[in-house]
Design brief:
The protein has 304 residues and is mainly alpha-helical. Among the domains are: 142 residues, NADH-ubiquinone/plastoquinone oxidoreductase chain 6, subunit NuoJ (Four Helix Bundle (Hemerythrin (Met), subunit A), Up-down Bundle); 51 residues, no CATH class. Helix content is 55%, strand content 1%. A two-stranded antiparallel ribbon has the order 1-2. Helix 3 packs parallel to helix 7 and helix 6 crosses helix 7. The longest helix is centred in the N-terminal third of the chain and has 26 residues.
Length: 304
């Protein structure tokens, strides 16, 4: 039970495939310009470490590496990045005096620590998991975390909580004015705004042809409604011309015959008297004649 188990050829092949990928992910984390890309590279490194843990007969540690670090911790990092926001100009500004020198000392300390840990692990004779953890992998990990390294574990947990609280504190903005109610906003819209926009602003999109937020709506006369597009898109120059879709807009109805199309275009239609008076077309009044009950008189007098 206490003897060292020799590695097989499959384990060596797996190591030489996964280890370079984990190193590439770590280098991508260091040299990536965007924070989100760095987080993705870190996820690649964490998944590679999880595979190596499983190959070293520590399946519980591999599952925890994927679920806790790659899942929960990476999501925490991404939420902090999205809440705070990272700009390329922030890296050239020292918010704390002397932080670059402190960072250089910290990097040097980490390198010394890695060299010491690597030398300590390489000098003793390697042993198998049966001798290192005779009572099981889960029990050995619990004994190390909550026994020998309990203060380090609590410190890391406090750092993660501090990062989340710091992100919430940095993104919190103090309200300078009182928040207006819906009734007050409605009264302000009628009092200060344009009366034609009192019922609501026009929505973007050209009728049913195009409903994108960067395309202004068309007014009845065919001109684009500038108020239908967000002012942010207008300032960025990301709006599209409504004239591109104006040719697709037409009236709904039966298509005119080829012979009637030209005559209709040349001669404007006028409403008939029947249409303006509300009478049917076959009524005598619609044609300008009147009906009387009396018969017309004859010139020769009464007929006897």
């Amino acid at each position: 039970m206490g003897e060292t188990t020799a590695s097989t050829a499959g384990e060596e092949v797996l190591f030489w495939i996964i280890a370079p990928l984990a190193v590439i992910g770590a280098l991508g984390l260091v040299f990536s310009r965007k924070a989100v890309h760095g987080a993705l590279f870190l996820a690649v490194t964490m998944i590679g470490l999880a595979i190596l843990y499983i190959a070293l007969e520590a399946p519980f540690l591999g599952v925890v590496q994927v679920v806790v670090y790659t899942g929960a911790i990476m999501m925490l990092f991404l939420f902090v990045i999205m809440l705070i926001g990272v700009d390329a100009s922030d890296s050239r500004v020292e918010t704390i005096r002397g932080q670059r020198g402190a960072a250089a000392l910290a990097v040097f300390g980490v390198i010394v620590l890695l060299v010491a840990v690597t030398g300590r692990a390489a000098l003793p004779d390697p042993v198998g998991t049966a001798q290192a953890a005779p009572e099981g992998n889960v029990y050995a990990i619990a004994d190390l975390i909550f026994g020998r390294y309990v203060w380090a574990f609590e410190t890391v947990a406090a750092v993660l909580i501090t990062a989340a609280v710091g992100a919430m504190a940095l993104t919190h903005r103090e309200r300078l004015a009182r928040r207006h109610s819906q009734r007050e906003q409605s009264e302000r819209r009628f009092r200060e705004g344009d009366p034609k926009d009192a019922a609501g602003m026009p929505v973007p999109g050209v009728y049913a042809r195009h409903n994108a937020v960067d395309t202004p709506a068309l007014l009845p006369d065919g001109t684009p409604a500038e108020s239908s597009v967000s002012p942010v898109l207008v300032a960025r120059g990301a709006t599209r011309l409504a004239e591109e879709f104006a040719t697709d807009v037409g009236r709904l109805g039966p298509e005119p015959k080829p012979g009637e199309a030209e005559s209709t275009a040349e001669r404007p239609t006028e409403p008939s008297d029947a249409a303006t008076s509300g009478l049917p077309d076959d009524s005598p009044a619609a044609h300008g004649t009147e009906e009387t009950d009396d018969e017309p008189e004859q010139d020769g007098g009464d007929a006897r």
